[in-house]
Structure formats: C-alpha cells, structure tokens
Amino acid sequence: MVSIEFLGKVVGVLDTVENNPAGFWIRFGALLLDGIILTILFYPVTFIFSSMGVGDTIIDITSRMLNLIYAIVLPLLWSGYVIGKRIVGIRIVNMDGSDVGFLTMVLRVFVSGIIYLATLGIGVIVSAFMIGLREDKRAIHDLVAGTYVTYNRP
After folding, report:
1. Average pLDDT, integer, range 118-125
2. How far apart are CA 126 and CA 139, in angstroms?
3. Of 24, 32, 70, 128, which is the most exposed, with the fewest CB atoms less than 10 Å away?
C-alpha cells in the first residue's frame, strides 16, 4: 500500500521538474548581464545630468528610480523577462506558471529590498544559499512574492 506521505513527495518532485526552476549560477549570470547592460544604458543619462550641473543626490535618486522601473515594469511588459534573463533564457513567473502582475513585482523588488536592507545584506547571502540548496530554487524575494524563476518559455 502506498502512503500519502510518499505520494506527496513524488508529486512535489514532479512539480519541481515541471516548473523547471533556474539555479544559482544562471540567475547570477543574468544579474551580471543586467548590471553591465544597465550601466551602459544609464551612463549617458548620468553624464548628461552631470554636465548640466545636477547634483549627485539627484543623479543617485534618478538612477535608483530607473532601476526600480526596470525591475518592476519590464517583466510585466515582457512575460517575466528582464534583459539579462532573456539573454540566458530564464524568466520570472507566478507559482502557477502564469505571468507576473504589478503587485507581485512590487513585492518581489521593493518589499524584498527592504528585507535585504533591514538584514544588512545577510538576507542576500541567505537567498543565494536558498537558490543553490532548495529543490525549488526559490529565494527570499520569490517566497515573499509567490514567484519562481524558470527556464519554461511563455
């Protein structure tokens, strides 16, 4: 006779395989690509503001706002992709595999940022280990927002 616990474990494994979660290194690579690309894209804005005599505080605020808009809005418009994730072939989705919504992305980016800041960066390290060690490859920001990162195409 097959136990309920055994069936639950089997279903959990099948769900994880079907979800096709992306691991640490591919996500880290996508993050590095995003950093390089955003630096190239936002540098002209910074240069223009600097040459106009705009203060460093305004430049910093503008840069942070552009990064937030990029991280929240682009996945909404592009089926869970940002540029780095698109290049490496992974995307952000809800736990049911559907495309992410605005509130989901706000939770994933903004609320998680507050958590990482409040833990003085320790949350980022914990998240990296979670992605590397958890079977579902979900980090703190994925748990907060109810998302995961997958290789599955839209």
Report:
1. 96
2. 8
3. 32
Please tell me what DSSP assigns to residue 95. T
Q: What is the pTM of this model?
A: 0.84
CA pair distance 85, 89, nearest whole angstrom: 6
pLDDT score for 17: 53
Q: 3-state SS of 15-66?
A: HHHHHCECCHHHHHHHHHHHHHHHHHHHHHHHHHHHHCCCCHHHHHHHHHHH
The CA radius of gyration of the chain, in Å to the nearest whole number, is 18
For the cut 80, the answer to whether the pLDDT of residue 4 exceeds it is no
Single-letter code of the amino acid located at 76: L
pLDDT tens digits, residue range 131-151?
999 999 999 999 999 999 999
Residue 5 CA, chain-centre distance (Å), reads: 32
Say how far apart CA 117 and CA 135 lie, in whole Å: 26
Here the tokens at position 135 are 């079977």
